[in-house]
Amino acid sequence: MRVTASCPGSCGELIQGWYGDSQKLVSYGIDRFSRVTIQAGHSFESTHSKSKEALKRTFDHFNLRNEDSKNFELSIVSDLPLAKGMASSTADIAATCRAAAAYLGKTISTNEIIDICLTIERTDSILFPTLTFFEQKNGTVRKESGWAPHFYVIVLEPEETLTTEGFHTIETDRLFYQQREQFSKIYHRYQTAVSERSIKRLGEVAIQSALLNQKILPKPYFSELLKLQKQYDWLGVNVAHSGSVVGIMIESVKEIDQVLNVIQRSKLSSYYSKVSVHQSCYRGVQLIEVRRNDEKVDDRSSIQRFRQNDNYAWFNEAFTKSRISNSAL
User: Fold this and answer.
1) How many CB atoms within 10 Å of residue 281?
2) Exposed, middle or buried, 191 (CB in 10 Å: 0-12/13-18/19+)?
3) CA-closest candidate to residue 210, choices 164, 234, 245, 158
4) What is the crossing angle of helices 256-265 and 317-325, to 10°?
5) Are 161 and 83 in contact (CB under 8 A)?
6) What is the C-alpha to C-alpha distance for residues 39 and 24, in angstroms, rounded to an integer?
7) Which of 31, 65, 264, 273 gives the lowest tally of CB atoms within 10 Å of its CB?
8) Separation in Å, CA 177 to CA 74, 172, 287
9) Does residue 275 sit in helix, strand or coil?
């Protein structure tokens, strides 16, 4: 048996801050994936310790012997960079849970996968089918909006890395707590955007949360980016509140070439060395291949249908158009 599951990553969060008694966030998926394959064997990639833990905890979830979880070969192919704020760990863990359950012939729900993820680390809300206000540490709040707005995002990625565990300290929690009144207003504006199904208001709210986060984890050249956003009337700007990536939100594919050209000519290009173009994605974690070992692989329906990009560098016009036309496989 060979099973492969995929999960999208994210470009940071739309909003994140202290609300009620803890930090909460709203993130959105993008069409950039982690794919986990499980098959019989005795080889486990030691670099993926969190996926190894997810495999064990999935066995525990189904009350199976933990020792049996060692009799697998697990491999990960991912488009998501590590420690940039793109939910790479959440995607790896969630896809591992889904693949393991399918291999065992078991059914596992999204909420059960989220529960397993939360036992390993803080988790994003990318697994939900719509925008979801989510308590990232314990999962005590999971307020689904019922809205899955479509937009494009130009991801600005620097070389700088920052792990989730490394970011969340007593000091950063204190800073988020100090901003609780300001974030409460942002959250209520987010609720208005959701109730009105207003993508314009959603972009504005993302900017407000990003601005608030500048006092906690400032992004280089952010003021320059906001000037460009206002000048060209882009939809919005969102950031990884505990990572290094930044997203430029736009409504139309026709705007992409303009944005790329503007960014390349600006000071931003000196720091954000990698740029990629994506769409919002609400697929959550999915099975993409289940086959017996003696079955032939049909590339049209296997993991080959998901692209793997080795170089997210500056785009030329032809590649930009090609990428967008093939982004929703």
Assistant:
1) 21
2) middle
3) 245
4) 140
5) yes
6) 36
7) 65
8) 40, 8, 39
9) strand
Contact call for residues 124 and 10 (beta carbons, < 8 A) = yes
The reported pLDDT for the residue numbered 298 is 45
**Distances from the Cα of 116 to the Cαs of 48, 56, 122, 139, 264, in angstroms?**
16, 10, 11, 11, 41
Contact indicator for 287, 95 with CB cutoff of 8 Å: no
CA–CA gap between residue 127 and residue 215 (Å, rounded): 29
Profile the chain (329 residues) by mean pLDDT over runs of 10 residues. Answer: 94 96 96 93 63 91 76 88 92 96 94 95 94 94 97 95 77 94 98 98 98 95 97 97 96 95 94 95 92 54 32 37 35
Do the Cβ atoms of 99 and 36 come closer than 8 Å? yes
Report residue 313 as tokens: 């560098």
| Backbone Cα Rg of the chain | 20
Residue whose token pair is 């990003």:
210
* Sign of the alpha-carbon dihedral angle for 185, 190, 196, 202: positive
Q: How far is CA 224 from CA 153, 163, 171, 202, in A?
A: 18, 26, 28, 21
DSSP-based three-state secondary structure for 3? strand
Q: 94: buried, middle or exposed (CB in 10 Å: 19+, 13-18, 0-12)?
A: buried
Answer for the pair 208, 186: CB distance below 8 angstroms, yes or no.
yes
- Rounded Cα–Cα distance for residues 219 and 246 (Å): 8
Predicted structure pTM score? 0.86
